[in-house]
Structure formats: structure tokens, C-alpha cells
Amino acid sequence: MIDEKKTRLMTKLTIYAKHDGKEDIDMARYYKADYVRLEVIKTILGVTLGSVLILAIIAIYYSEFLLDNALFMNYKALGKVILGYYLALLTIYIGITVIAYSIKYTKSRERLSKFYRSLGKLKKLEEKEQRLREIEEEEREDMEE
Question: What is the pTM of this model?
Fold first, then answer.
């Protein structure tokens, strides 16, 4: 006879394992601080690469102006302005990254905890079913004797 409770539980566990479970289990290998730090490093690399690409596009767009005024430009002031924008952008993105990935990690741990509790329930159902089978087996043996 099929146990509906057990079937529902197994279905939920399978769906979780196929979707969020893979990412949550990978995330669980890290401590929260390490996971967030890794994502911050990725963000720094992404913002830096993006900033360099945007700066290159702007330089290409204004290349005629830059070549005409190359001798008269204040490079120190230009560098400070560019660095200021870069640091402001980096600060904003790092803040967003820390908040977003801290929340993501916390929710992942909650889902994983729920998953393990459900596995425990499934194990208890299996043990109960096994005990019932053993009892039925003993009763059959007693009736045959």
C-alpha cells in the first residue's frame, strides 16, 4: 500500500533537490563571511572590468578632443575625477552585494535546514514502515508454525 504522506514528502524533496538544492548545497560548503567575501571579489572584478570598458568607450568617443588637447589637459585632476567615480560606483556595488548575498545565504541555509528536517521525517517514516514489515513477517512465521 502506498503511503501518501511519504510520497508527498519524497516528491517535495526531489523537487527541491533538482532546483534550489544544488545551489544551496554548493553554498553550504562556505561560511557566510567567506561566501559573501567571494561574491564581493567577483563584484570588484566585474565593476573594474566594466569601468575600464566604459572608460575606453568614452576615450574612443572623445578621441579627437583628447588628441587635440593632449598637451593642455590636467591629467592629475582628470585622474582624480575618474578615480572618484570608480570608487563611488565600487562602494555602491559592494554594499548591494554584501546585503543581497547575505540575505541569499541566510535563505539558502533556512531552505537547507528544512530539507534536512524533511529527510529526517522521511527516515522516521522508513523506520516505522520497516518495523511494521518486521512485525508482519514475524506474525506470518508464527502462523506458519
Answer: 0.74
